[in-house]
Write a structure and sequence with these properties.
7 strands
Length: 160
Amino acid sequence: MKNNKGIRKGDDPVIIKAVVWRQSALTLFLFVSGFFFAFIDYVGPVISWVCTILFGILFVLSLLDQLVQWSRLRIDENGYDLRTWFTRQQYRHEEIETFSSQTYLNRQLIILKLREQSLKKYQLQGPEIPFPCSFGRPVEDVLEQLNKSLDKTPRKIKST
């Protein structure tokens, strides 16, 4: 008999966050880049100011993301909630058939395969959706966690 149980009601949610040292390195790089352009004037004062402001804003966003942990994947009894800086993807357990991986530009990419009813609900052409949620962790580990947490109990897909 197949094991249908993934994360169920009452279970603690699983949260996959960015690897701290990688996000810290990005934040430090953005700070140094902004600081660098603040003192460089051979590219012109306008370009220097624009780059300083741009890298400064990105530094603040990255620092805030690190402090309040905005970017993350939350797996709970409702489903999967992937938040990044600019996008948010939410899928319920009953909408997902399986997770797999695919090599794209010499990197492993997690692929979410939706059920037929979900394709109609979201009006999508193909069942496979890229699900970029490894946050600097090995794709195999995240993929194992995703498949382990998928609740395959048969349920009707709710339309929103």
